[in-house]
Specification:
Cofactor: Mg(2+)
Strand content: 15-25%
Distance between the termini: 42 Å
EC number: 3.1.3.57, 3.1.3.7
Shape: globular
Largest sheet: 6 strands, mixed
Keywords: Hydrolase, Lithium, Magnesium, Metal-binding
InterPro entries: CysQ/Inositol_MonoPase (IPR050725), Inositol_monoP_metal-BS (IPR020583), Inositol_monophosphatase-like (IPR000760), Inositol_monophosphatase_CS (IPR020550)
Bound molecules: the ligand O=P(O)(O)O[C@H]1[C@H](O)[C@@H](O)[C@H](OP(=O)(O)O)[C@@H](O)[C@H]1O, magnesium ion
GO molecular function: 3'(2'),5'-bisphosphate nucleotidase activity; inositol-1,4-bisphosphate 1-phosphatase activity; metal ion binding
Length: 334
């Protein structure tokens, strides 16, 4: 059923419109990088930056969601003030009928707008976005001398996250990756995956990670002894250190990693709500490092102070949890 269809469940419409809204935010993010005026400001620290792309993407996402779902509660990473200066333009998602096949499980078909809490991360991977920009203005080509990876590849860590919660649970989500396909100049950039837990998932093919290996994906910029102890306890065959909470979960969905381990209080509800919903729609699991469900009520603390553990579909999440050392779990108390 098309999301525009009158009888479509509200949750299906929110997911369907959010795909178009996230794709539009991806255009804004790419345009600002192209113009090269990022307007970088520090938030809590020099490691916690915000760019004009974060602000403009958030304005476009939240004003559109507010217009079409005014009774829902919308929480964006970049706070209230970043939404105020409206240029009067509100993106219209209803014209985009590219999304089809969204199915909603019976227990979610009657969810009311007032029950929805929408967690928005307008640009996940700001550090990688700004580093790629720095590389460009300093004329780096190919492998970046300071980073040891190709500067352009950092752009692949950037995602736009729109997560939908009902009853404090992640139930729907959209992950847009604006620089997907950057390796093929001239090709269409960007891809978007969406899902409803217990319903359908779509937008990109799902691939299981390889047998006979255990590939862990984790932080590239917030390591600690606790983070590394948790990783070592799983005896991985490979560790991929990358940016972006959304990007790490995409790696689980496309078979590049078996598990995402982040034994640190670094990420927030807007980093995990959308990835959790899409991952669980695809058969995976996301919990905190103790194995507890992450709450997404409007009044939930924004910080995920007890870490993140996410397993690809078909992996034994409980077995991973059992291997996490007790001192790691003790270090990450709520
Ligand atoms: O939206 P941003 O601020 O880029 O989100 C951050 C997360 O908050 C942070 O936890 C992630 O840290 P790691 O790279 O160490 O996983 C960062 O990548 C972004 O997702
Ligand atoms: Mg984020
Ligand atoms: Mg962000
Ligand atoms: Mg941020």
């Amino acid at each position: 059923m098309s999301v525009a269809a009158k009888g479509a469940p509200l949750l299906s419409r929110v997911v369907g419109y959010s795909v178009a809204i996230a794709n539009n935010a991806g255009n804004i993010i790419r345009d600002i990088m192209k113009k090269g005026e990022l307007g970088i400001v520090e938030k809590e620290s020099a490691q916690d930056l915000q760019t004009e792309a974060d602000r403009a993407a958030q304005r476009s996402i939240i004003t559109a969601l507010q217009k079409y779902f005014p009774k829902s509660t919308i929480i964006g990473e970049e706070g209230e003030e970043e939404v105020k200066d409206l240029s009067g333009q509100v993106f219209d998602p209803t014209a985009d009928s590219s999304v089809s096949g969204i199915t909603c499980p019976s227990h979610l078909t009657s969810v009311a707008e007032e029950e929805l809490v929408i967690w928005v991360d307008p640009l996940d991977g700001t550090a990688e976005y700004t580093q790629a920009h720095e590389c460009r203005i300093s004329g780096h080509l190919g492998v970046c001398k300071t980073l040891g990876v190709s500067c352009e590849s950092l752009l692949d860590h950037v995602t736009v996250l729109i997560g939908i919660a009902s009853g404090g649970k992640a139930v729907g989500g959209v992950i847009h990756q604006p620089y997907y396909n950057y390796q093929n100049p001239g090709s269409k950039l960007g891809r978007t995956i969406w899902g409803i837990v217990g319903g359908s998932v779509g937008g990109m093919p799902l691939t299981a990670p390889p047998d006979g290996k255990l590939i862990v994906t984790t932080t590239r910029s917030h390591s600690s002894s606790t983070v590394n102890d948790a990783i070592a306890a799983l005896s991985p065959t490979e560790v991929l250190r990358v940016g972006g909470a959304g990007h790490k979960v995409m790696m689980l969905l496309e078979g590049k990693a078996h598990v995402y381990v982040f034994a640190s209080p670094g990420c927030k509800k807007w980093d995990t709500c959308a990835p959790q919903a899409v991952l669980e729609a695809a058969g995976g699991v996301l919990s905190d490092i103790q194995g507890k469900v992450i709450p997404y009520h409007a009044s939930a603390p924004h910080r995920n102070s007890t870490g993140v553990l996410a397993s690809a579909a078909g992996q034994d999440h409980q077995a991973f949890l059992t291997k996490i050392p007790q001192h790691v779990k003790d270090n990450l108390k709520a």
